[in-house]
């Protein structure tokens, strides 16, 4: 049996898109394009520039930024080890070599190999082929020291006892085993961490501040799929980095989302805002909340998820949607009463700035958000027609995140719109595009008409019309039926008579009327009509 021929009894597998991923098809994609085009236009009027980012990054980046204990990082990321360089893989084996003879010649040969390995590993580390993790940095440094001592021994400068030799070689073996030759990478679950990484890596702190960036693209989270929740979903994300933390910046970012939603005529938009304090006042509040939640009469009335969160992240208890917990949560202490003076002033000013911009909002003291980097302002938009997954945009301030990722102290605020949900809501309220029909269907018959049809198609397309040119000739009746099915507005009929006379027949499919035009007149007529 030749390669590639399936065995008779084996049915070919029916491939399906991976659970939680989906195909976006026309005409829906026209709506996606319209939404993205509107984002480009509206965001540009607020001075934002587009940034395009990698789809995968070091796992560590998200662990640091989003937080190792968050659901996103601890449960939902698609992570994998990048493929290590085969040459480096061999070095790992050389380091992890069980030494059986301490005879000088054998040791000298081994030390020679180890020196080559060390210098290659150092070079690879400089070039970024070996991941620059803290563990690798420490291991390479220790390896240098150990090999240095073995060199001293084999050169007769500083003899080591057999026991010492055995210990040092065992330590080298351990390093060989521990060395991480391949980076652990993750498909991005969100974009803020990447934008901050890019801000630092590209020295954007040298640009006039603040730097306003936005990006549109797929994100990946291994959540339980349902309506409005996917494992590959799309975000329209915008970030303002650097400059001051003036409340007007928070308000303008929120105003931009509102302007965008208004432009799209999104229905039932509701904006919730909150302030979750800063590193000075929040810990005090969290302590208080934790103490309250830990009271036996309260704790025993909470479900297992909330009980677990008392230890891991008490603020997230406020997020709970569990019905039985609602009356308990309503009575918990509220952060607004525990903000430090700066945070309280900032929050009041954000609200004032929103009012000045005519942006309606609802204060929601339970809006804490599920990512660790937030401080002060947090906000969420909901829209109609989305069921339980009705958050269509989430965001907030994250001063300090850039610093946490190794950059200079930098202010930051931003948001991400869930594009899938935005589209769903637009469709539910009847804002989806109608099936896009062709403008003109060319019904041609005969060899001479074929050449004319090709020319007509070229000219009409050049003028911007959408044209369907059948590849083979069809009887006119069949051609008109086809034109109808495709939702064409006009049929251009080209037969022997039309070509001979130089007068082309244009049939309006809606009412069946038809008229004859010369080639230039036809273009003028269509331009007027369409
Ligand atoms: P987030 O709240 O995790 O925030 O996500 C923002 C939006 O993305 C959500 O409101 C929702 O519309 C959409 N979304 C999230 N997960 C899914 C999913 N599995 N399926 C469909 N849509 C989803 C962030 O990602 C932050 N990075 C936002 C931000 C930017 N904060 C500051 N700057």
Features:
20 helices, about 15% strand, 16 strands, alpha+beta, binds histidyl-adenosine monophosphate, 8-stranded mixed sheet, about 525 residues
Mean pLDDT: 94
Question: How does the helix and strand content classify structurally?
Answer: alpha+beta
Rg calc: 33 Å
Gap from first CA to last CA:
58 Å
- Uncertain runs with pLDDT below 50, 5 residues or more? none
How does the major sheet shape up?
8 strands, mixed
What is the general shape?
extended
Number of helices in the DSSP assignment: 20
- Estimate what percentage of residues fall within beta strands: 15-25%
Helix fraction? Answer: 40-55%
Task: Report the count of strand segments.
Answer: 16
Strand order of the largest sheet: 1-5-6-11-10-9-7-8
* Small molecules held by this entry: histidyl-adenosine monophosphate
């Amino acid at each position: 049996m030749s390669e590639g021929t399936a065995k008779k009894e084996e049915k070919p597998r029916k491939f399906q898109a991976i659970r939680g991923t989906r195909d976006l098809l026309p005409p829906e994609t026209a709506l996606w394009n319209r939404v993205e085009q509107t984002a480009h236009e509206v965001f540009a009027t607020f001075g934002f520039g587009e940034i395009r980012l990698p789809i995968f990054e070091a796992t560590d980046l998200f662990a640091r930024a989003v937080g190792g204990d968050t659901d996103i990082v601890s449960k939902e990321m698609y992570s994998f080890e990048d493929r290590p360089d085969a040459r480096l893989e061999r070095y790992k084996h050389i380091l992890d070599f069980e030494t059986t003879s301490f005879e000088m010649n054998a040791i000298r040969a081994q030390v020679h190999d180890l020196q080559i390995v060390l210098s290659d590993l150092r070079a690879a580390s400089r070039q970024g082929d070996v991941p620059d993790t803290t563990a690798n940095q420490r291991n390479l440094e220790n390896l240098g020291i150990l090999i240095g001592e073995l060199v001293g021994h084999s050169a007769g400068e500083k003899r080591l006892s057999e026991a010492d030799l055995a210990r040092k070689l065992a330590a080298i073996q351990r390093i060989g085993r521990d060395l991480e030759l391949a980076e652990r990478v993750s498909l991005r679950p969100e974009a803020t961490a990447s934008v901050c990484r890019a801000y630092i890596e590209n020295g954007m702190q040298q640009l006039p501040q603040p730097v306003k960036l936005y990006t549109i693209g797929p994100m990946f989270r291994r959540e339980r799929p349902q309506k409005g929740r996917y494992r590959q979903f799309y975000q329209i994300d915008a970030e303002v980095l650097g400059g001051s933390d003036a409340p007007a910046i928070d308000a303008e970012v929120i105003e931009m989302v509102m302007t965008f939603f208004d432009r799209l005529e999104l229905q039932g938009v509701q904006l919730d805002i909150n302030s979750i304090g800063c590193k000075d006042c929040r810990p005090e509040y969290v302590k208080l909340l934790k103490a309250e939640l830990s009271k036996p009469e309260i704790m025993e009335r909470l479900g297992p998820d909330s009980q677990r969160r008392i230890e891991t992240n008490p603020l997230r208890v406020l997020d709970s949607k569990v019905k039985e917990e609602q009356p308990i949560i309503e009575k918990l202490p509220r952060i607004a009463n525990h903000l430090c003076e700066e945070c309280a002033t900032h929050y009041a000013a954000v609200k004032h700035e929103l009012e000045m911009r005519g942006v309606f909002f609802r204060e929601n003291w339970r809006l804490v958000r599920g990512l660790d980097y937030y401080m002060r302002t947090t906000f969420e938009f909901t829209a109609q027609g989305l069921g339980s997954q009705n958050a269509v945009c989430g965001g907030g301030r994250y001063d300090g995140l850039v610093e946490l990722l190794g950059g200079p102290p930098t202010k930051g605020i931003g948001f991400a719109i869930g594009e899938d949900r935005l589209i769903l809501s637009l469709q539910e309220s009847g804002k989806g595009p109608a099936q896009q029909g062709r403008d003109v269907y060319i019904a041609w018959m005969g060899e001479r008409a074929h050449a004319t049809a090709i020319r007509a198609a070229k000219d009409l397309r050049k003028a911007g019309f959408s044209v369907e040119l059948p590849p083979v000739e069809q009887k006119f009746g069949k051609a008109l039926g086809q034109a109808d099915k495709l939702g064409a507005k006009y049929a251009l009929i080209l037969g022997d008579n039309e070509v001979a006379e130089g007068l082309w027949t244009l049939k309006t499919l809606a009412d069946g009327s038809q008229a004859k035009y010369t080639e230039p007149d036809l273009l003028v007529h269509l331009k007027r009509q369409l």
